[in-house]
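Structure (tokenized):
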């Protein structure tokens, strides 16, 4: 089997060779595609540029929530002064239309298939000061993390701790400074929004009608 690689379907990032899964390559490699809506939560899917994502849930509005299996290579500060994801620097980085993170997600699933998601910013202590915020890419909430762990996902050690959307509290409670994180071993804790840089695992909402490539069950 001969696979033709050229500048249009490959790129090099550090020590990684990233190959875009064109329809021709999928056919040659016998990569199976299935309707996203037909796959159960917990399934590992592969986007068009080779990134792996985990299905967290299907919602009644014909959208599917997926969480990237691997952390991004870089680490980031949440914000300089606020634990409100809606006004945070990390929100701007994730949703920058000219940035690499969103560009890769568009390449992976198709721009029109990446939908706005209403992020519930209720704090850990039950305050809805921040309400909900709509965007295309966020960090996943503490409830999303609970759901993933309950399905047996995200059980392996993390390369480094990563941020969640969920604030620890707000000014109506104890502080508008602390943000929930997931530690390297999988336990939940908190950091100040500007203490340190942490990892990012993008969480997105997709059109459930699209077809996706399915990863091996052992990869979850």
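Design, position by position:
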């Amino acid at each position: 089997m001969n696979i033709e690689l050229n500048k249009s379907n490959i790129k090099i990032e550090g020590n990684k060779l990233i190959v875009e899964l064109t329809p021709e390559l999928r056919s040659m490699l016998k990569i199976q595609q299935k309707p996203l809506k037909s796959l159960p939560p917990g399934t590992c899917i592969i986007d068009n540029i080779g990134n792996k994502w985990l299905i967290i849930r299907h919602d009644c509005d014909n959208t599917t929530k997926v969480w990237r299996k691997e952390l991004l290579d870089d680490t980031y500060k949440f914000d300089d002064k606020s634990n409100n994801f809606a006004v945070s620097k990390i929100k701007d980085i994730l949703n920058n239309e000219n940035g690499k993170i969103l560009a890769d997600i568009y390449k992976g699933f198709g721009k029109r298939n990446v939908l706005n998601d209403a992020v519930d910013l209720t704090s850990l202590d039950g305050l809805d000061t921040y309400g909900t915020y709509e965007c295309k890419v966020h960090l996943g909430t503490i409830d999303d993390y609970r759901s993933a762990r309950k399905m047996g996902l995200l059980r392996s050690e993390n390369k480094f701790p990563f941020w969640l959307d969920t604030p620890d509290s707000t000014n109506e409670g104890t502080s508008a400074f602390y943000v929930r994180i997931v530690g390297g071993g999988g336990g939940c804790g908190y950091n100040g929004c500007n203490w340190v840089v942490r990892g990012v695992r993008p969480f997105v909402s997709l059109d459930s009608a699209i077809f996706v490539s399915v990863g091996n069950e052992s990869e979850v």
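Reviewer-requested clarification: DSSP finds four helices and 15 strands in the chain. The mean pLDDT is 91.
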